[in-house]
Design a protein that fits this description.
The chain has an 8-stranded mixed β-sheet, with helices on both faces. By secondary structure, the chain is of the alpha/beta class. It has helices at residues 15-24, 39-44, 52-58, 69-77, 82-85, 100-110, 125-131, 142-153, 167-195, 200-207, 215-218, 228-242, 247-259, and strands spanning 5-9, 28-32, 48-49, 61-64, 91-94, 116-123, 134-139, 156-163. The protein is globular and about 65 Å long. Strand 5 (91-94), helix 6 and strand 6 (116-123) form a beta-alpha-beta unit. It has 13 helices and 8 strands. The protein has 2 domains: 5-164, Rossmann fold (3-Layer(aba) Sandwich), CATH 3.40.50; 170-268, N-(1-d-carboxylethyl)-l-norvaline Dehydrogenase, domain 2 (Orthogonal Bundle), CATH 1.10.1040.
Length: 271
């Protein structure tokens, strides 16, 4: 059965533009959001304001766009949660950044209820969300992934099936590890060049055509790093769980903590 009604839980920086993309793609879009002050914006984008129980009962696919493990756990398994109220056969896609083992737990809890819980993480940031050019990693049974893919393509220019449930979380973690390292390296390279009087914008444009090119350099000055600390803690937990040492990531994490309040201020870097 094709998906016609999509529920979105959480209309924040990423969820809000997704509403509009889904509506333009022809889906009926129901939205549950704690902040009533966002209702006008939701409705302006074509979303229908809905209580959680109504959204769950009517949606064939539900996108969870809230914070982290505890919030997702409450939505799924709490009193009146989605495990109790979603229709059989519904697909619940977790866009939130959480631990892979938590995703596996959720999927196992949903299975006897006939509810498919998968992870579908998103990369490329707020501007890509606005433009509908996100990268979506989606993890789960191939038939379930195939069924929800038209929904994901409404707001993603690229959709990649990463494997079993939980692997979309791991794929986004790999993306973030590399992004953070590039963000620090870009700061250090440009800060050094600035000290020697090099025109930074001329240099940056040149580097984007060279072997130093990277995503952080391409969107220089645009990343808020609002996600950094919580996401880094999740990645550290992943590393502990599988017993791998990530020494560069530990160093980058420490640098990013200091970098966040003065990002892109090259004259202050390394001082």
């Amino acid at each position: 059965m094709s998906i016609q009604t999509v529920g979105i839980i959480g209309a924040g920086r990423m969820g809000m533009p997704i509403i509009g993309h889904l509506k333009r793609a022809g889906f009926e879009v129901l939205v549950s959001e704690r902040d009533a002050g966002r209702r006008a914006d939701i409705e302006a984008r074509g979303g229908q304001w809905a209580e959680l129980a109504t959204l769950a009962a009517r949606s064939q696919a539900i996108l969870i766009c809230v914070g982290y493990d505890s919030e997702v756990r409450e939505l799924l398994g709490g009193a009146g949660g989605l495990f109790e109220t979603a229709q059989p056969g519904a697909i619940i896609a977790v866009l939130s950044t959480i631990q892979p083992k938590t995703m596996e737990e959720f999927a196992a809890q949903g299975e006897p209820r006939g509810i498919h819980v998968i992870d579908s993480t998103i990369c490329r940031g707020g501007r890509a969300a606005d433009d509908g050019t996100l990268l979506s990693f989606v993890a789960g049974d191939a038939a379930v992934v195939e069924r929800i893919t038209p929904v994901l393509r409404a707001y993603s220019s690229d959709v990649v099936h990463s494997g079993k449930v939980g692997t979309a979380q791991v794929s986004k973690a790999a993306n973030n590890l590399i992004l953070w390292a590039c963000l620090v390296a870009s700061h250090e390279g440009l800060a050094l060049a600035q000290r020697y009087g090099v025109d930074i914008e001329v240099l940056r444009a040149a580097l984007l055509t060279s072997s130093a090119t990277n995503g952080a350099l391409d969107v220089w000055g645009q990343q808020s790093m609002a996600w950094a600390q919580d996401d880094m803690d999740i990645v550290a937990g992943m590393a502990r769980d599988c017993g791998i040492s990530l020494p560069q990531t530990v160093l980058v994490q420490d640098i990013c903590r200091e970098l966040k309040p003065r990002r892109y201020e090259l004259d202050k870097y390394g001082v």
